[in-house]
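We give the entry.
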Amino acid sequence: MHIFHRPVVRIWALLVAVLWVVFEAVRAKAGAVASDLLVAVYLTAGVVFVWWWLFSFAARVRRGWPALTKAIGAWQQEPVSRIDETFEYRYPRIVRIRRHELGFDVTVSLLPGQVPKNLGDHVEGIAHTWHVFRVEASSPARGVVVLRVWFTDPLAVPFEAPLMPSVGDVVKRAAGLAVLRYGRTTPEREDPWVPEFASAEIGRCDDGSPWRLRLHGTHVLVAGVTGAGKGSVLWGVVRALLPAARAGIVQLWACDPMRMELSFGRSLFQRYACEPAAMVELLEAAAAEMNRRAQTFAGKVRKHEPSSKCPFVVVIVDELAFLTAYQPDRDLRKRADAAIATLTSQGRSVGFCVIGALQDPRKEVMNIRNLFPDRIALRLDEPNQVDMVLGNGARERGAAAELISPDPEIGAGVGYVKRETQPEPVRVRAAFVSDEAIEAMVRDYGRSGGGFGSAA
C-alpha cells in the first residue's frame, strides 16, 4: 500500500498544508513580525507535542499499541485487491484515553468478529507492558472494550473500621424507632430512624467508594486461605449490625468450631455454639424458625420487614467445611448439610441470612456453594479456585485472587466480590478490626455492657 494511502500520513500532510497556508496569509497581511511570532507559536506547540508523545502515558499507550496488539494476536489481515499487493494489517482502534482518579480508562473499538475476551484474556500482559499495577477489561457496549488502568494499588495500605455510634445514642434513637413503629408520632423526631440492617459497610472498593456488603435478601460465602482476612469480613459484619441488634431488629447467631475467632466476642451473639452437636442444633433451630415464619407469612407477606417480633437473623458459620466435609460424625454431617441447604435455599425471603467462611472451595468440600448468591474470594491457592467461588469467567474478567500478596500488611482482607446483580467482580478490602475494637464492642454492646440476649 502506498504511504499516502495511510490515514495518519494524510492527516499530517493536511495539517502541514494548513499551517503553511496560515503562515503565508499572516506574513502577507501582518508582516514579518507577526509571522515570526506565529513561527514561535508553532515551535512551542511542536515542543509540547514532542514532550507529550515521548513522556505521557496516553501517548506511550498509543505509540506502542500496534506492537502490543500484534503480540497478543489482536491483528487482522486487510483484504487485498491484487495478488501482487503487499499485505497490510489492522488492529483494534483506541477511541479515547481518559484519566480517572487513580489511573486511565482506555476505550478500544474492536474489529469485526472480535469479542471482549480477545483483550480480556491478556490484561496481565497489558499491565506488564504498560508498567502499571493492574488492568481490568469491561465491555459497556457492543464492539467496545474499556481497559481500566491503575498506576498503584489503592488498597495496599490497611485501614481501621469507621467509628461506631455510642450505645447511648443507639438506645435513644432505638426508643424513637419503637414509638414510631406503634404509629404514635413524637415532636422530637418526625422521621423514623431505622438502624442499618440491609447491608454492612465493612471496607473499601478499589475506586475509593465504601464497600457495602448486602445482607438482607441474600446469603454470603467467604473463601480464602489461612491469613487471607476472613476474620476481618466476619467482624466487619458483626460490627456494622450491632446498633440494629441493640435496637432489637437483628439477631446474630454464630457457629465457631475453631473457638479462636468469634469466641473473642461471644457475648455479642444472641446464640453461640462451638461444639459440633451444639452447632448442628443451632442450625436446625434456625431452619425450624425459618419454616415457622414461612407458614406465618404465607399468603400475607411478600417481603420481610425486620421488627422486634420478627427480627432479621444473621447466622455466621466460621470454617463451614468443618460441618459439611470434615466432621467425623456422619449423622451430624448430614444434619448440618440439610440445615444449611434449607436455610440457603429458602431463608432469605423470610429474613434469614447465612454467612459462611471456608478455606477450600472445592465441590467435594462445599457442594452447595451455588446457593450463596453473593460471594467473596479472598487470597486463594490456585487460579481455578477463583471460578469455583465467583463463577465461570471471573478469573478472565480480572479476579486474580491467587495473586493477592501473602504479606498481611498488603494482602489481608483484600479480595474480589461477586454480587448477584452484578456479574463483574469488584476488588475490595475489608477494614481491619483490631482486638481492642472487639473488646470495646464487647464492653459497650455485650451482655456485661447492657447489651442483649444470652448465648446458647
Q: What stands out?
A: Residues 82 and 197 are 70 Å apart (CA to CA). The radius of gyration is 30 Å. The chain has a mean pLDDT of 83. The chain has three domains: 1-55, 65-152, 167-449.
